[in-house]
Design goal:
Length: about 325
């Protein structure tokens, strides 16, 4: 049974909107094809991520996330995503590189906490093409999110431009992820490539490969389901902020990245068990107000959540992970 549906954005607008609404209500995840992302840029970004993770440890460590900042290299076993839900686990079996928004977006924001999400991204000196490639890919995926948010507005019965003023100075992050092939390495009880968590922002785009061991989503009954790699597709999922914006009409679903099965089967014995993915974690403008959207609460009923700015929502989520000993876990696959 297909738990996570695939939606073709080339279909008629009303068909796409209805499919998005159904997917966001039922599972909080869907995959998109027909998205028109520049294939050449996408390939360069993917190859650049691979090249970065193959750098010597000394070169990667030189761009480790500075204390108090959000972007740069996250070393292997440096994060525990399940801690964002108050669950204690061994460190996740991955390494990352996170890229923040372009400089200059804090000029009109009177909030010192915003410096965290607008901190500068350190780039490896051994890869001079990494910054322009990833910056272009960041912008390409941001444009795709704008298109999706317009379709999502229609799916909610609202005007296509209802989100425009709330995402024109978004605080999104692009994250490169590498899950090494551990071979016969020791794995601790309860240890995963990425522990069970939900994402913090509006929505997430994910490009994933089809290596063994991958993304799983948890349904309302608590059962876990694989999210297969569909050729050319991006996985899309609702984040906590959009769940709150829709008064829980749409679901921010718990998900995880599992280890490859111990027995891959005869046909897969020689497969590389390393995994790579690239995630774009979209967040609204720092000062955007997240409050119940029209049509997402019954007449006469009270919304489940009080209004909050997107920036404060993000920082509250982040601080909850810090209090339980996790690093920045805005969602990672």
């Amino acid at each position: 049974m297909e738990v996570v549906p695939t939606i073709d954005l080339r279909d008629a607008g009303d068909t796409v909107a209805a499919a998005i609404d159904a997917a966001c209500r039922e599972v909080g995840f869907f995959q998109i094809v027909g998205h028109d992302v520049d294939e050449a840029l996408e390939s360069r970004a993917w190859a650049t991520a691979t090249e970065f993770f193959r750098l010597p440890e000394k070169a990667k460590s030189a761009v480790t996330i500075p204390d108090g900042d959000a972007y740069g290299y996250g070393p292997f076993r440096a994060e525990r995503l399940a801690a964002s839900r108050g669950v204690v686990t061994p460190p996740d079996l991955k390494e990352t590189f996170s890229i923040g928004p372009p400089p200059g977006r804090t000029d009109d924001i009177d909030d010192t906490a915003a410096s965290f999400v607008f901190s500068q991204t350190p780039w490896p000196i051994d890869m001079p093409t990494m910054q322009p490639t990833m910056s272009a890919y960041y912008d390409e995926l941001a444009a795709l999110v704008e298109r999706l948010m317009s379709l999502m507005a229609v799916a909610l019965g609202l005007a296509p431009d209802v989100f425009d003023g709330d995402i024109d100075r978004h605080t999104s992050a692009l994250r490169l992820l590498h899950y090494p092939d551990l071979g016969a390495g020791v794995v601790e009880p309860g240890q995963l490539r990425a522990g069970a968590h939900s994402d913090y922002g509006t929505l997430t785009l994910l490009r994933q490969d089809d290596a063994p061991g991958g993304l799983q989503v948890r349904d309302v009954r608590g059962a876990w389901h694989d999210v297969p790699a569909v050729h050319g597709a991006y996985v899309v999922n609702v984040g906590d902020a959009l769940e709150r914006w829709t008064n829980d009409r749409w679901r921010s679903t718990v998900h995880r990245v599992v280890l490859p099965p111990a027995d891959l089967g005869r046909a897969d014995l020689d497969r590389d068990r390393a995994r790579q993915s690239i995630a774009f974690f979209h967040n609204a403008n720092w000062d955007a107000v997240i409050e119940c959207l029209p049509g997402c609460v019954e007449p006469g009923a009270t919304p489940k959540y009080p209004p909050v700015t997107a920036g404060r929502h993000l920082m509250d989520k982040f601080r909850s992970t810090q209090e339980t000993g996790a690093n920045d876990s805005r969602g990672v696959r």
